[in-house]
Amino acid sequence: MEKPSDQPPQVNSQSPPKDCSGATSFEWPVQDNLVSLQKMRDQARGGGGTKRVEQQHARGKLTARERVNLLLDEGSFEEFDVLKAGRGGHLGGEKEHLSDGVITGHGTIDGREIFLFSQDFTVIGGSLGEAHSEKIGKVMDHAVRVGAPFIGLNDSGGARIQEGVDSLAAYGQIFNRNVMSSGVIPQISAIMGPCAGGAVYSPAMTDFTFMVGNSSYMFVTGPNVVKTIIHQDISFEDLGGAGVHSSKSGVAHFVLPNDILCIREIRRLINYLPSNNMQKPPFLDLRDPLDRKDPALNYLVPVNPNQPYDMKVLINSVLDGAEFLEVQSHFARNLIVGFGRLGGQTIGLIANQPAVLAGVLDSNASVKGARFVRFCDAFNVPLICFVDVPGFMPGPEQEHGGIIRHGAKLLYAFIEASVPRITVIVRKAYGGAYIVMNSKHIGADINYAWPTAEIAVLGPRGAAEVIYRKEIQSSADPMAALTEKEDYYRKTFANPFLAAKRGYIDDVIFPQDTRGRLIRSLQFLEGKHVKKPTRKHGNIPL
Question: What is the per-residue pLDDT for 91?
Answer without folding.
Answer: 47
